[in-house]
Write a structure and sequence with these properties.
The chain has 16 helices and no strands. The protein folds into 3 domains: 3-219, Rhodopsin 7-helix transmembrane proteins (Rhopdopsin 7-helix transmembrane proteins, Up-down Bundle); 233-249 and 257-281; 283-351, Orthogonal Bundle (Arc Repressor Mutant, subunit A), CATH 1.10.10. The protein has helices at residues 3-30, 34-52, 62-72, 75-88, 95-114, 120-147, 155-184, 193-212, 215-219, 235-246, 257-264, 268-278, 284-300, 310-317, 322-333, 337-347.
Length: 351
């Protein structure tokens, strides 16, 4: 075995060890978090990619090769879901997002079953289509990381966002360039080891960042943490609650944390810390939506407003449109606003 082959296997073994360590940390401390569970699935798929991209590797068993290749193609889709869930603190993702993310491995598995793998269809249709899908997912993950930075109340995660954007952009360019070079322009298979080295460095940097910051800051309270360990209420929290109840600034759909801090006459960093540590919110948009949803639910349960359209109630409460309102309501209550109104009115004795 050549020196290059030995070094290549060492790098790949390092990647598998690092993602295994990260997965263990996520499962040990944050298995209740949707983002953490998706992160573990992403790590498993990354392991598949590491194995599938070994130069000139062929196990001799079609079932094993098909399974590893299929698992490998799920990596970027799961990465996209991870970014969506983690940066937005979403507790669940809709089925359309899951379908889009898992479409590439489903197609690859189907092609293996149909015997079309590595044929003309793969070379001229599936190969460019697959790369376009992955590129779109990477770009959208970067967009989510960039657009949500101002609403992020977790200082450690806000700093990670910028590193995330830079590292993922570079890694995506390297991986896609090498893959295109190998499969379309005859680049030596050993060139596929370059992305693996980049993945190793990125994995090390991410795990180092996780161990540097409090785990609660990155993924929420650990399963064994007690709520009492959080920072107690402070005077600013009381002032904030008072202004939210009396002046209702959440009704302004363009409200920002900087504008709210100015309205309170406080520095922005203090307001961020109070909303996060004293009031338990990790995202400013979700903090505003919690007040908006409370107003909406009160209105939906009010017999005097039973004829008022739900859209009118949502817009009055500060939601900009029906789509974001429905998603926020369903995630918070597990049902549609219409179902909530029917149940609430029925409980009050009004059918």
């Amino acid at each position: 075995m050549s020196l290059f082959a030995v070094a290549d296997l060492m790098v790949r073994g390092g990647i598998i060890a690092l993602v295994a360590l990260w997965s263990w940390l996520l499962l040990r401390d944050h298995r209740q978090s949707a983002a953490a569970r998706i992160g573990v699935a992403m790590n498993v798929s990354t392991t598949g990619h590491v194995l599938a991209s070994i130069p000139n590797m062929d196990s001799g068993f079609v079932v094993i090769d098909a399974g590893v290749d299929t698992l490998s193609t799920a990596t970027i889709g799961l990465f996209w879901l991870f970014a969506r869930s983690w940066f937005s603190d979403s507790r669940r993702l809709d089925w359309k997002a899951w379908l889009a993310a898992l479409l590439p491995p489903l197609v690859v598995a189907t092609m293996y079953l149909g015997g079309a793998m590595f044929g003309p269809f793969d070379r001229f249709i599936w190969f460019p289509l697959l790369r376009l899908i992955w590129l779109a997912m990477i770009v959208d993950a970067l967009r989510i990381a960039w657009q949500g930075r101002d609403d992020d109340l977790i200082e450690a995660r806000r700093r990670i966002r910028l590193a995330f954007i830079v590292v993922v952009s570079i890694l995506a360019v390297v991986v896609l360039t090498v893959e295109v070079g190998v499969f379309r322009f005859g680049l030596d298979e050993r060139g596929r080891s370059l992305p693996e080295l980049a993945i190793l460095l990125c994995s090390f940097a991410l795990i180092a960042a996780m161990l540097t910051h409090r785990q609660y800051d990155l993924f929420g309270a650990a399963a064994r943490e007690r709520p009492a360990a959080q920072t107690p209420d402070d005077p600013l929290a009381g002032r904030l609650r008072a202004i939210m109840e009396t002046e209702r600034p959440y009704r302004d759909e363009r409200m920002t944390i900087a504008a709210l801090a100015a309205q309170l006459g406080e520095q922005e960093y203090r307001l961020r810390r109070t909303i996060n540590r004293a009031m338990g919110h990790r995202n400013f948009a979700q903090f505003l939506n919690s007040w908006r949803l409370a107003e909406v639910k009160t209105a939906l349960a009010d017999p005097a407003q039973r004829e008022v359209p739900i859209l009118t109630i949502a817009l009055d409460a500060g939601f900009g449109s029906l789509g974001p309102f429905n998603r926020a309501f369903r995630e918070a209550e597990g049902m549609t606003p219409s179902e909530y109104r029917i149940r609430a009115l029925a409980d009050s004795g009004i059918g």
